[in-house]
Write a structure and sequence with these properties.
single chain, alpha/beta, Aspartate Aminotransferase, domain 2, 3 domains, 7-stranded mixed beta sheet, 4-stranded antiparallel beta sheet, 46% helix, binds pyridoxal-5'-phosphate
């Protein structure tokens, strides 16, 4: 073999570079969790691109690459990272991910990932139990909530359509009922499935931004009258923008009445099944035909890891099966250990180990502690916002997603959207904090997700101070 090629796999180089990397990441973890650096070193996209073009031409040193990569990335472990829903992963989970990347078991069939496949089964059984499924619940891990929702909705379609849809294609006008506040991945999944806009039946939300369950009947009948065969109802647990949980019990009763598939998109907040204090938010999910839960949001794993869970085990085998109906009737003995028969992916990452390492190292109760703490922070932060006359809380949060805006008395309503957008933009480029924004009923709100256990009351006070000073400065300037 060519020496250069051989050197790629040199164990001594791996050891030397690996130790330097761990050293670097240890310091990074210390500095970022203690907030001793900006949360982000903001650069315009074109500047970032020219930097990396130059780096590509000039560098051949992996350590330099590591350092620059860290320096030019957003720091999720920073207590002032309060923006999107991605969590600061438990370091043990990152360590086992490195192991997984090196041994690179592909998971499609049993012998391409024997240990990780069995571990996946252990975890799936735990999640099924936590949801409250009977012994017949089952599922698998897939790459993200977006793919998870698509998979679950494909299962719903298989269940509803009596002809062989894999063979014949879509023949009916099918529809799914979903909250107007649902994550866009639901909309996207239905369009991928060929439902078109008419098949996405958006039910309005009430003042608390959860689906108006009293409108379900009316929207259902209207769709039927328009020639749409409604096959499923989707609940958000919670919705992404405002973090509010739909009434899953009411949705479940409604879907039972009309024999519809009930899917719960719990990508963000499904982790509440572990919280003794907040588990009530997921009540009704135990009746859902399918539930999607992201590990990389509330369950401390690096991206990606998504649980796709089914109340009926047989369904988890038939989604991608050519002869779905036949399979269900026959209820044949499935091979749980051959994963690719059930997932969109053929090769997939060893995702199970990311969750399992946390479970083994820290125990199951760590998920209770983490979810409870973060949802408690949501309450604490919203109380501070409510008490401040310059700020307006969008709504009392259910979870760790808190939306509010700068709204001093003297400012006229038309200006508020522009000011709040400018505040968010200012904070992004300043790099001390990371928050995002959302639009609720045509009003621009600042949006925070309290996803970092190191965020605390002094972080909140500092952020509020920054928003007030920035807002007032914009007011004077304009
Ligand atoms: C984040 C989110 C998704 C998408 O999940 P990804 O893992 O980012 O693909 C879907 N639905 C809801 C409610 C979410 O919060």
């Amino acid at each position: 073999m060519d020496n250069k090629l051989k050197s790629v796999y040199n164990p001594d180089d791996f050891n030397r570079i690996g130790h330097e990397l761990i050293e670097l990441l240890t310091n990074y973890l210390r500095d970022s969790t203690e907030g001793k650096m900006p949360v982000m070193n903001w650069k315009e996209p074109s500047d970032q691109l020219s930097y990396w073009k130059k780096f590509t031409d000039e560098s051949n040193d992996p350590i330099e690459l590591f350092k620059n990569l860290i320096d030019r990335s957003i720091h999720i472990h920073h207590p002032k990272y309060m923006g999107h829903q991605l969590c600061p992963p438990a370091p043990i989970s990152a360590l086992i991910s490195l192991l997984g990347e090196l041994i690179n078991n592909g998971m499609a069939i049993y012998e391409m990932g024997p240990a990780a496949t069995a571990i996946e089964k252990v975890i799936i059984d735990l999640i099924a139990k936590k949801i409250g499924y009977s012994n017949n619940g089952d599922g698998y891990i897939t790459s993200g909530g977006t793919i998870g929702n698509l998979t679950a909705l494909l299962a719903a379609r298989q269940n509803a359509v009596k002809h062989d849809i894999w063979e014949d294609g879509l023949q009916d006008n099918l529809g799914v009922m979903v909250s107007a506040e649902a994550h866009y991945s639901v909309d996207r999944a239905l369009r991928i499935m060929g439902f078109g806009a008419k098949g996405i039946i958006k039910v309005p939300v009430g003042e608390d931004f959860t689906i108006k369950t009293e409108l379900l009947e009316e929207y259902y009948q209207k769709s039927i009258d328009n020639g749409i065969k409604v096959i499923a109802v989707v609940g958000s647990a919670p919705s992404t923008s405002t973090g509010m949980y739909d009434d899953l019990v009411a949705l479940s009763s409604f879907s039972e009445k009309y024999n519809l598939w009930f899917h719960v998109d719990a990508a963000h907040g499904g982790g509440a099944i572990f919280s003794s204090k907040y588990r009530y938010l997921m009540k009704g999910a135990e009746k859902a035909d399918s539930v999607v839960i992201d590990g990389h949001k509330m369950l401390m794993t690096p991206a990606l890891l998504t649980f796709v869970m089914f109340k009926n085990k047989d369904v988890s085998y038939s989604t991608f099966s050519q002869k779905a109906q036949y399979l269900w009737e026959k209820n044949q003995d499935e091979e749980w250990f051959n994963m690719a028969r059930r997932t969109i992916e053929c090769t997939k990452l060893m995702m199970s180990i990311k969750f399992y390492a946390i479970l083994i190292t820290h125990g199951e109760d760590i998920f209770n502690l983490s979810v409870t703490h973060l949802y408690d922070l949501g309450k604490e932060f919203s109380a501070l916002i409510k008490a401040n006359s310059n700020l307006e809380l969008a709504l009392q949060p259910h979870s760790n997603i808190v939306c509010f805006r700068f709204k001093p008395e003297k400012v006229n309503v038309e200006e508020l959207n522009a000011i709040n957008s400018q505040i968010r933009n200012h904070i992004l480029k300043d790099g001390d904090f990371y928050i995002v924004q959302t639009v609720i009923e045509d009003k621009v709100y600042l949006r925070t997700t309290l996803i970092n256990p190191n965020t605390n009351s002094s972080t909140f006070e500092e952020l509020i101070g920054l928003i007030e000073t920035t807002g007032n400065r914009i007011l004077i300037g304009s």
